[in-house]
């Protein structure tokens, strides 16, 4: 039996088979490596696509909120019914403090200090603004620019009471 493996012909065949087996292992290894690289690339692409989808959904949510925010507005009559007063440095407005209205001396929209006899509008959420600052805002939106509280509902409820 040892003579069979010792012959040059058998050794050559064994070498060929061994070479083919090594080539086959290399080919399978390369194919598997390429397959796993493609799978990893597909996973990365899918993750990027999922992230883009989440971002678009978030932007859609923000856009829907902005649209709904801008669709509601107060009528000029509703704006006129909001409480107003002439600002005075000497008058601390104790009646407004008693009901919880903001008594800041600065308009939250233009960020300017109120001057003597400026017309100030108080919203139901207790925030106050210059009349000329808040009126255009309320003509486009029924929400307080500070806290987003609905002004229309409270103003309408006060009218019905």
From TrEMBL:
Keywords recorded for this protein, A-Z: Membrane, Metal-binding, Transmembrane, Transmembrane helix, Zinc, Zinc-finger
Gene Ontology cellular-component annotations: nucleus
Domain of life: Eukaryota
GO molecular function, one term: zinc ion binding
Gene3D superfamilies in alphabetical order: Zinc/RING finger domain, C3HC4 (zinc finger)
GO BP annotations, alphabetical order: ubiquitin-dependent protein catabolic process
InterPro entries on file: RING_finger_E3_ligase, Znf_RING, Znf_RING/FYVE/PHD
Annotated ranges, domain RING-type: 107-148
One Pfam family cited in the UniProt record for this chain: zf-RING_2
CDD domains associated with the record: RING-H2_PA-TM-RING
Transmembrane regions: 12-36
PANTHER family: RING ZINC FINGER-CONTAINING PROTEIN, SI:CH211-59O9.10
Name of the protein: RING-type domain-containing protein
């Amino acid at each position: 039996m040892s003579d069979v493996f010792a012959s040059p012909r058998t050794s050559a065949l064994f070498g060929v088979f061994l070479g083919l087996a090594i080539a086959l292992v290399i080919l399978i290894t390369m194919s598997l490596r390429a397959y796993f690289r493609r799978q990893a690339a597909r996973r990365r692409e899918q993750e990027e696509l999922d992230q883009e989808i989440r971002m678009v959904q978030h932007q859609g949510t923000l856009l829907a909120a902005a649209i709904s925010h801008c669709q509601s507005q107060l009528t000029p009559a509703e704006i006129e019914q909001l409480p107003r007063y002439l600002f005075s440095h000497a008058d601390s407005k104790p009646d407004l403090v008693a009901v919880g209205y903001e008594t800041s001396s600065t308009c939250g929209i233009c960020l300017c200090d109120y001057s003597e006899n400026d017309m100030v509008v108080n919203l139901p959420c207790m925030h106050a603004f210059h009349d000329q600052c808040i009126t255009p805002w309320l003509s486009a939106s029924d929400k307080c620019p500070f806290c987003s509280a609905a002004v229309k509902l409270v103003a309408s409820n006060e009218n019905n009471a």
